[in-house]
Amino acid sequence: MAHPPTTDPANTTDMPISTSTTGTPAAMNNPNPETETTDPETDFLLQSYIRLRHAISTKTHRGGDDDDDDDGQHQHRHHHHRHQQPSDRRPVLPTREALAAALSSLPTRGSPSYLEGRGAAQTHAHLLAALLPALNAQALSPRYYGFVTGGVLPVAEAADNLVTALDQNVQVHFPLPPGPGSGAPEKEEEEEEEEEEEGPGWTHSASTAVEDAALRMLIDLLHLDGEEDDEGKGARTDPRWPGRTFTTGATASNVLGLACGREAVVNARAARAGGKKTVAGDGLLAACLAGGVREVQVLTSMGHSSLAKAASLVGLGHGSIKDVGVPGEPWRLDLDAVERELEREDEGVLSIVVVSAGEVNTGRFATNVLDMPKLRSLADRYGAWIHVDGAFGLFARALPKTDEFLGLHANVAGLELADSIAADGHKLLNVPYDNGIFLCQHASVLTQVCSNPNAAYLASSPGDPNAILSPLDIGIENSRRFRALPVYAVLLSEGREGIAAMLSRMVLLAREIAAFVRDSDHYEWLPTEEASLESTYIIVLFRAKDPELNEVLVDRINASGRMFVSGTKWEGKKAVRIAVASWRVDVERDAAVVKEVLTAIAVGRKC
Ligand SMILES: *Cc1c(COP(=O)(O)O)cnc(C)c1O
Asked: Annotated Gene Ontology MF terms (predicted)?
């Protein structure tokens, strides 16, 4: 049941990649003569990739639990035996020996060969032979449950290789010349003069259009355009979120969210005081002084640590983060407390409210279906900005609308009422790092924060409200990677249903594990045993009832080599967190392994 419709995990891990039987990825003979071309660069890259995939598949079988004698044939024989899939036995962490070997292979200052060019072939052989075995198999393992990381869908990896091959810099949007009847507004005279210098409607890449297509599809996938039931078909052509861009991750998206929030609330106050000062133009201090602003606070409930970092980066400081969670359910936003804080607006205290849509320890949500409209009207009344940190939580909106997920849908309902939203591509969407998403309802605020002033040679604004904005003016970087392509590829390849199925498998596995932990004599389900499974998303938080075992539980689990988890603290005591985020999830297979490992550890049996 648990395979995604269009991609078979077994196929990608078991693919016969090479006819070589030596098992030595460092061997420099071409393992697959069919790929030989006449171009040395192409040859090198093709062979590098073949060797990489070959090394990955052999790494799978080395040092694995009990299948040291495994080889390619063995692998094939068991291709369809779910419980014996190689991915099932794959060691998640590198061995101590591999780590030691890798560390001792690093160049040492003072050695005669230090910084002596080794050449591409030898260098690549070093990467595969010494470094690869010392990395963790995060993206390759179906049971890497540390942090919230995700894996990489094969089609996303393929798209990312294309991005690397072309080293596409997505920087300035040069629109196509307006076609007949495109409705583009008349150019002003000044612009016309500029165009004569550069040539009319100059375009040099489709990348910005692809990026925009990916962002629009994401907005529709997540039902964020505020129009229900139209499935994105026949929807109006200008979705909300005219300020939309890809970032390096949710941290960068949170930086943009706080920067935009700060810009909007402070400038509005400065304007009300009759001044023309802005944060972007005059700086935070001058704009706050002009508006009589004493403080800008960030109201949230169990905000992610990156939020404090973002607050530091945008000049608000860690201390600006104020927790207004519901007592006993600290991940939930206490709207009464929020209102009390917003009222301080008349003392010159301005607020940005950050909704933790998916709290990172518990996976629970700050708001419910009725909260967001209330929060929106409070923010409007008191001049506050609403930012959603939905790094992984936002994707609950793409789950099927079936009974088992209705509770989660209620948790993420109304998030489209926010001023800005942060999400991660490299977590649940399973595209490679670095991939984050930032959406903003107010393009002018985003461009005010991010535009490059006095750089006329980069200007390309067409002045059309429905146009694609230059990436340059809506994000942190100027030169930047074509991060959109892997997302575009995943959306195209999986479609709404494929992505819904992938997310469902993550949630259903988390719930299987949660039910096991809840019913176990040895473990305690956190934050509360009384919670319903329906409120479980992709994270399971728990601890061992035996305090001694609890101290070492994370290490014991990871020492099993069968799965990887990360530790956290809950109410001052150690706890284990399982975050299910890989497309490779197989509910039945993985639940069995997790239960086996947790049971064996609890009863002191080897696993
Ligand atoms: C992971 C995460 C972040 C940070 O995202 P990065 O991708 O690591 O930059 C922010 N908020 C939440 C809720 C997260 O889970």
From this structure: carboxy-lyase activity; pyridoxal phosphate binding
